[in-house]
Amino acid sequence: MRGKTLAFAVVLSLLIGASGMYVFMNGLDAEVGEDKHPVLAETVDAKHEELDTVTKFLSAMELISERYIHEVDEKVLLEGAIEGMVKALDDPYSVYMDEETASQFMESLDSHFSGIGAEVNMTNGQVTIVSPMRESPAEKAGLLPKDRIVKIDGESIEGLTLYDAVLRIRGEKGTEVVLTIDRPTSSELIEISVERDEIPIESVRVNTIEHKGKTVGVLEITSFAKDTAERFGKELAALEDQGIDGLIIDVRGNPGGLLNVAEEIGKLVIPPGEPIVQIQNRDGEKVRYISSLSEKKEYPIIGLIDQGSASASEIIAGALKEAGNYDLVGQTTFGKGTVQQALQLGDGSEIKLSLFKWLTSDGNFINGEGVEPTLEVSQPEFFYLPPLNVKEDLEYDMLNEQVRNAQHMLKGLGFETGRTDGYFSKQTEQAVSAFQNTNNLEPTGIIDEKTAATIHEAIVEAIRDQKNDFQLQAAIELIIKQSQ
Q1: Which helix (H) or strand (E) holds 438?
Q2: Which residues are tagged catalytic?
Q3: Maximum CA pair distance of the chain?
Q4: How many CA atoms lie less than 13 Å away from 443 in the CB half-sphere?
Q5: Nearest to residue 314, comparing CAs of 372, 387, 401?
Q6: Over the stretch 250-263, which tens digit does the pLDDT of each residue have?
Q7: CA of 423: how far to CAs of 296, 366, 427, in Å?
Q8: pTM reported for the whole predicted model
Q9: 245 secondary structure, DSSP code
């Protein structure tokens, strides 16, 4: 057993450092009574706290290895111990990843991967959607920030680690996964079926909008990947060569990414000499990252934010608002103010650990609070609704949440239901018939599976229509006003 314990100690040293390993090696000769575990009290000086910790850890391992009713693989014990230590931090962003999970994590930072396209974390013990990526299967299926996943394909995920849950959600392109969602704004659990697809990391999208004789450039950042700053710089230069009258930087639904990329993008738009972000270590020491832009942009800049804007997105949003004195349009962001780094343990496994806080340009810590817009604008109600889950046809005189959702959808599509409280009235029936007529369906006035699917398709198209994007339209109007 001594050989096994020594081998285990070598692995443990990866976690506690060389000094901890030295203390442990000097404590290996603890007395062992006949058929008893090490007599720790006789060999450990109480003032050596690190020795106490290490010896207690190894004593527990030895007890389980030698005396538990079933034989246990020591590697399994080690994995569980590390997971337990990280879990004890009570930090949704610090996680242990075994070799397979670490490989999957690195793949998600590559140019593409197969899955549903949503950033998740562990919040209060529940796997929670941070943000679905723009135009991803997750977004198209109706997943929203703050949605809590309680089941995957009908099986409870209680007790699973975050990355075990992620591995169940991901899968081959073309396959489906059914997620059971607990949504804060819904009184019922929601089942959402998502078809997995190849998720390309197209981190920068560009567009120009002509409005009232002005040209507005739009740069949408979908994630902060390795090449995002370079692509942002090239697209910005191209827009400026065209002669734009204003710029909209859209980080809605962007779950974040690499800190240094946010800093590099900040240097392209934040006025010279202004802090983009401040990084603070555990001792309270701060490092400020300053914009090196040669001169302030001559045109107005507006940031677009929402509840799915997290982490690096919030760095940019905070810098635009505080250092650039630019307007932010939309809704308060997610609120993630810590910085993680993947630290290797030597065998392919990693701990993604929170190492720093980040503060806004003015020194604000937004963790759990988010960055507030200067102009709050919500999208139409139907933007936030899940697809209709028609287990039974919806028809006259019914009263439930599915009817309520259908009423809001039909109203958003231009069909007047008369009420939106979930009661299927005669006017709602007429609105359903009108929708069915318009879409070449039999005008029964009843929402069956086919009608529900057609409503969903129409809603997706309506969400993609820029005229229904109230936040974008408000940002454009601000640009026009400020560029006069």
Answers
A1: helix 426-438
A2: 311, 336, 340
A3: 91
A4: 10
A5: 372
A6: 999 888 889 999 99
A7: 55, 41, 10
A8: 0.77
A9: S
